[in-house]
Design a protein that fits this description.
By secondary structure, this protein is mainly beta. The protein has a single domain, classed as Alpha-Beta Complex (hypothetical protein yedk fold), CATH 3.90.1680.10. It is built from 2 helices and 10 strands. The strands form 2 sheets. Strands 1, 2, 3, 6, 7, 8 and 9 form a 7-stranded mixed beta sheet that branches. It has a 3-stranded antiparallel beta sheet with strand order 4-5-10, with no helix packed on it. Strand 4 and strand 5 form a beta hairpin.
């Protein structure tokens, strides 16, 4: 188990003093961002999900949608993780997921989407020597059902 919202190895203070927004990372800058580049280079992970929520509409009239894979095996998001030593919580392991520009049909829900890996791409994502940039543009096709909740 790990904490969502990545806290990089170089954070040395109290856990609650870490103020950067790191619940997700842009795939376009993950290799160069000070916050994410070390974890991207050394600590990739798979984040298994069986679905997730997206919201559309104005703040007071939000519509909630659930996105689920059509097959029953679930999917994995591309993720990175890190470990830091904090002064109040000790060792903290945390992670974040990668985000990209959306592809149909998820583009009608949000201006970003997770990098959603196919089973055959899991080993490539975890291989620290592999070029993973082609995984950032995988098509969604008909892989997901989208239902209003």
């Amino acid at each position: 188990m790990a904490r969502w919202w990545l806290v990089p190895w170089w954070h040395k203070g109290k856990l609650k003093e870490f103020r950067l927004t790191t619940f997700n990372a842009r795939c376009e800058t993950i290799a160069t961002s000070r916050t994410f580049r070390d974890a991207f280079a050394r600590r990739r992970c798979l984040v298994p999900v069986d679905g997730w929520f997206e919201f559309t509409g104005e703040r007071l009239e939000r519509v909630r949608w659930v996105v689920r894979p059509r097959d029953q095996e679930g999917v994995c998001f591309a993720g990175i993780w890190d470990r830091c030593e904090t002064t109040d919580a000790g060792a903290v392991e945390s992670f974040t997921i990668l985000m990209r520009d959306p592809a149909p049909p998820l583009d009608r829900l949000h201006n970003r989407q997770p990098v959603i890996l196919r089973r055959q791409d899991w080993a490539t994502w975890l291989d620290l020597k592999a070029d993973v940039t082609p995984l950032y543009g995988l098509e969604n096709g008909d892989r997901f059902s989208i239902e209003r909740v």
